[in-house]
Design brief:
By secondary structure, this protein is an alpha/beta fold. It is built from 17 helices and twelve strands. The strands form two sheets. It has a seven-stranded mixed β-sheet. The longest helix has 25 residues.
Length: 451
Amino acid sequence: MSSYTQRVLDSLKAKYPYQPEFLQAAEEILTTLQPVVEKEPKYEKYKILERMVEPERTISFRVEWVDDKGQVQVNKGYRVQFNSAIGPYKGGIRLHPTVNEGVLKFLGLEQILKNSLTGTPIGGAKGGSDFDPKGKSETEIMRFCQAFMIQLHRYIGALVDVPAGDIGTGGREIGYMYGAYKRLTTKYEGVLTGKGLNYGGSLARTEATGYGVVYFTDAMLKDRADSLKGKKCAVSGSGNVAIYCCEKLYQLGATPVTVSDSTGTIYDPNGIDVAVLKQVKEVERARLTRYAELVKTAQYTPVEQYPAGKHQVWCYPVDCAFPCATQNELNEEDAKTLLQNGCKVVAEGANMPSTLGAIKQFLDAKIAYGPAKAANAGGVATSQLEMEQNAGMTSWTFEEVDSKLHNIMTNLYKNAADTAREFGVEGNLVLGANIAGFRKVADAMIAQGVM
């Protein structure tokens, strides 16, 4: 690593030893930026790395709400507005007990480059709370979302910061937050994406991340004179991303054979029944044990029976793997197992789902590997399309949005692949995506001066 990138990374490690996820994301990005900062000294001259790894602002606040028993509850809320050089802040709101500032900084840093790669004018941000929607009543979730927006509304706006959904924040939560924002500000504007279709939402937004990761994979395989047709695929997770990844895989001739949730893994060599999965997860909001009850060919493995140090979902012979659940769900041993079982394609639907050790395994094996900030950019790309529709007070058909998404993901792949080629590491989409996303943001920062 160049002395410049190493110096910045060492400084971050000294300042934030208690933020391991953020340091992991920063290390993955900074190590791949070495060729471009050596080639173009202006980035060191203007201290771009030091500026880019620090958020423009971090907002933290108390969220007070009352549960169904009349008891006051207190959660921590955050919004990390990381970089607005190329457009308004854009990034999801995560509601999960694991949320803390370090997790949101890792997500926000990744979001800067991901948003840049889409080719659309949006900056990077992330937010959330340690509130857990699981086990809460509809009324409790509504009260929390309203309390959260009471604190957040003063920092966001259609041309300032446009949050979206993330883990724990689906259409229901977005609806409650949007209703609160509208009442607090008296403004009907596109301040949130992932809204309902009858109040400014976009068709294909629900499907976008899952569809997008498959479109990216399709482009990646076409560049290698291959296709998804006939491929067996392992998919992790069972939320929006996993469900619609499975759906699009079937449409392109592949067969997803696994899904998972926090309690266990489903394996079905005949293929995952997407209709049943939607019923279980989107309608009943149940665990995958329910899926196993409904689909007799499904084999369910609870977390307690996973191999030591591994995730069961990666233990089956497949051609492709799509980690679509959460960060660091695929470790070095999982990667070795996938490779030993013949996996030739990995495309990340979740944010930073592979550890640094796993990524090294994939790059060393020279398989087709699509890193998260490139492969899962379809969600935020379609969020920006929703912003466009809101700004024009119009709506597009599903086919129009899906076509635009397909083009964005195809062009995104080409940009990352061409950049990797430019720097002499053809096929290394980690380096290609990071440099391609970085240059656009860094050049905009230089052009706008220092204040």
